[in-house]
Amino acid sequence: MTGKQLRQLCGTVLIMEAIVIGLAIPVAIVQEHLRHGVAGGVGGALAVCALLLGGVVGRPGMGWALWAGSALQVLVIAAGVVVPAMYILGVIFAALWVTGIWLARRLQASPAPRAPSAPDT
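Now predict its structure.
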């Protein structure tokens, strides 16, 4: 699999997911009455993991990052226990994650476009 497409697609999903997780921290505190330390610790850890994985996914020798990113998707969905909106957001990001992997593999499998040849005269 080409790392460039995987980095672009899956890395973008993870970075956007980190932003959404970060924005869910105040929601957990205000709406769900979660203690600041718990919400910040758990939400912050998930967001930092998403950012770090977004930086290494698709790089040579970092095949484990796909598995770690998939595990992160499960954890984000599980965060719906605390903030119910995370069930929906987690499923959306998991779908984007799977689509990113699928598209990167599909792009890698397609033949490279050839340059048009000059007409013979």
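The helical segments are 3-30, 36-56, 64-78, 85-109.
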